[in-house]
Structures are given as structure tokens and as C-alpha cells.
Predict the 3D structure of the following.
Amino acid sequence: MLQIRSIVLFAALGGLPSVGMLAQTGAVLPGIPSINAEERFQNAPYSAQRRFTSIDKLVDGKINRSESGGSEARDSLGRTYSAGERHWTYQGVLKNEMLYRIHDPVANTDTRWDSSSKEVKVVHWPQNVSNDEVSSGQCQACLEATTNDLAASIEKLGTKTIEGVTAEGTRSSYTVPAEQGSNDHPIVVVHETWYCPQLKIVILETNDDPRSGTTRNELVGIVREEPDVKKYYPPANYVVQELQMP
């Protein structure tokens, strides 16, 4: 049996899961604000480490803590780079790999590869359709649909400094009625997000669900200068597959 225990995986590497699915798989997504694609987040370079922590409540009552790591960066022209590790257990053996993605809004391409294969996929998007704009729309629709379905209450938390940058906090919560699922009393699920307007990224995101446990997705070691992005490019001997989107 294949069992994925924890993932650090960015949206375009494998599609955009719902918020509910994120809580179950432990996937980490960077902040994707709804913004006109022409802005491209220019002149706001940075690099940082992405850290994901999951504390799961198992059926037998035990607690399982797992951590995954990654890194990300953006240059002054708005190109974004990400690398994340994925761990899973297959037939009792722990396996892992690194997943990489480069999104280039200048060339309108997405480059994806991983450490377990020797193939690179380069997706070319039409010049009149921006992948940033598509991804932003999907993310916004996903969040709005989830909020509506769960009738979540939303609270603004003001601002605070995290990792040397100013972030704006939002807390959403919803109540799972008693006897819906396995709970015999009402349960409150709380999701908190801290977003940095200057860098247009989510710095810290937490989710607390008494039924399954808690997750913490955070950006640490933020450096606000032009990044060194050599580590995000695949080895020269990898096979490159060019995909032209219609």
C-alpha cells in the first residue's frame, strides 16, 4: 500500500487541491493573491525557506509529528522558483524526493521536474493567456466555495511582524455539528493566514482541526534581495519535454 504522510508541494506541480484536501494531505501552497497578471510582482525579490509541520491524531489516540521542508524565491522580473520535499511510505519503506518548479511570466512558461526522474517538462502558455491569472482565479474560486459551503466566520487580526516583514492576519472558523461524522459534540475548526502585502506572499498559515490535528506552513529566513536560483534548475543530462498549450 502506498501511503503519503507529508508533502511540501506547490500548486502548479500537481493541480490545485481544495482547502479540505490540503488539510488531509498536508500539501503546502504559497499565497496566490488575485491580481492582474500584468503586475507580475516585479521589483519585489526575495528568497526563503518553507517549513511545514503536521501533528496528526491517529485512530489509536497516539500523536504523530512530521516535518517537511522546501525553499522558494522570486527575482525582480517576477519569475518564481520553488523546491519542496515529499515523503511517503511504500510497503514499509520510507521514500522521498524533491519537487521543483519555475514559473516564468516573462517567457510565459512553467518548468517542472523532480529528483526521482530525469525528465523536465516545460509548459508554454499562449501569450494572451497568463498562467498567473488562471491560477489566481482557481485559487480564489476554491477559497470562496469552501467558505460558502462551510458558512465560516471570518475575523481580521490586524498586522504583526513575522520574519522581519509586516503581515496581515485573517482567521476563519466553522463549526462541525455534533454527530456529523464521528464526533459526539460540536467541533470548531480554525484556519489562520498571515499575508505580506509588500511581498504578496503568505508568510504563515495554520489549520487546527480537533478531529485530525494541526498543521503549520511557514516561511522562514526571508532575504529581501535578488536570489541565487541555480539550485532550481535541472541537471544538464535531463531530457526536456516541451509542451505547447493551445
Remarks:
- Residues 1-39, 131-149 have pLDDT under 50 and may be disordered.
